[in-house]
Specification:
This protein has about 280 residues and is of the alpha/beta class. It has 2 domains: about 200 residues, Alpha/Beta hydrolase fold, catalytic domain (Rossmann fold), CATH 3.40.50; about 60 residues, no CATH class. The protein contains 10 helices and 8 strands.
Length: about 280
């Protein structure tokens, strides 16, 4: 898997498809790129090049607990630099859950590099605002305060990171616990500050300022409610909404791989949208 040096870090990436317009797909949570490979292959089969990557602090890429802005903003700027290195901008920018938030911020920060937005499983609402700070930050802050960096490194998420990139273990062991707590607390506070916005982390004014072609495919669990997708659609002028033949479920989270049966339709809808909005 290729590695690019992006803003001082090693970022692992993969390009699916050999020619055609560029598309990026960013996964949710802090998960690596692998769960999007089947969808990327379907889109690439229609004549596109799909860029997948492990964001910093995810997958096999380097871990660096540093930065003043939200993680999504940092990821958006990393993606912009990676696209520049590959000569892939402007591109259609897409993602699911935190990947959708990253894509929206990418369009706001780098509109000239954005041909359009492909948004899956938009996050918003009271349930997500309560659940996600614990998942992303609070559990690791408790570990750091109670057991130092050894306790942080022993958590399931970090053990997964070390299994994919052993160099991250030494980097984390050598991280000052006070620095770790300070950065994670800052990231948490930034995240919580945007948790109750119409789309998590994005104001109504920002959503209404988006001018690039946009399509929204809503989710169907309590973290990615269909209403959150409809809110994004209503606030992004001229955007399109595509509802999959699925119903909302009263469950905390449906993992994206469970959407496997929907991937043919998602790929078809995205390809049609991109072709109608200048891909050729």
């Amino acid at each position: 898997m290729p590695v690019a040096r992006v803003r001082g870090l090693n970022i692992h990436y993969r390009v699916v498809g050999e020619k055609g317009p560029w598309v990026t797909l960013t996964t949710g949570g802090r998960r690596g790129h692998h769960e999007f490979v089947p969808l990327a292959q379907k889109i690439a089969g229609a004549g596109f090049r799909v860029l997948l990557h492990d964001r910093r602090n995810t997958g096999a890429s380097d871990i660096l607990i540093e930065g003043d802005e939200t993680e999504e903003a940092i990821w958006a700027d990393d993606l912009y630099e990676l696209l520049q290195q590959l000569g892939a901008a402007p591109a259609f920018i897409g993602g699911s859950s935190s990947g959708a938030r990253t894509s929206i911020l990418f369009a706001l920060r780098h509109p000239g590099a954005t041909r359009g937005l492909l948004l899956l499983r938009v996050t918003g609402g009271a349930f997500a605002a309560k659940r996600l700070p614990e998942m992303y930050y609070d559990q690791f802050l408790r570990a750091a305060r109670e057991g130092g960096m050894a306790a942080v490194c022993a958590t399931e998420q970090y053990r997964e990171r070390f299994a994919e990139n052993a160099a991250n273990l030494e980097r984390m062991k050598n991280t000052d616990v006070k620095q770790y707590v300070a950065v994670m607390t800052r990231w948490r506070d930034n995240f919580v500050a945007g948790a109750n916005l119409p789309v998590m982390g994005v104001t109504e004014k920002e959503l209404r300022s988006i001018k690039v072609p946009t399509i929204v495919i809503p989710g169907n669990d309590r973290t990615h409610s269909s209403e959150s997708g409809r809110v994004a659609h209503r606030m992004i002028a001229g955007s399109e909404l595509h509802a999959l033949p699925i119903e909302d479920q009263d469950v905390d989270l449906i993992p994206f791989p469970k959407w496997g049966p929907q991937e043919d339709e998602i790929a078809r809808v995205f390809v049609d949208f991109m072709n109608r909005h200048g891909a050729r």
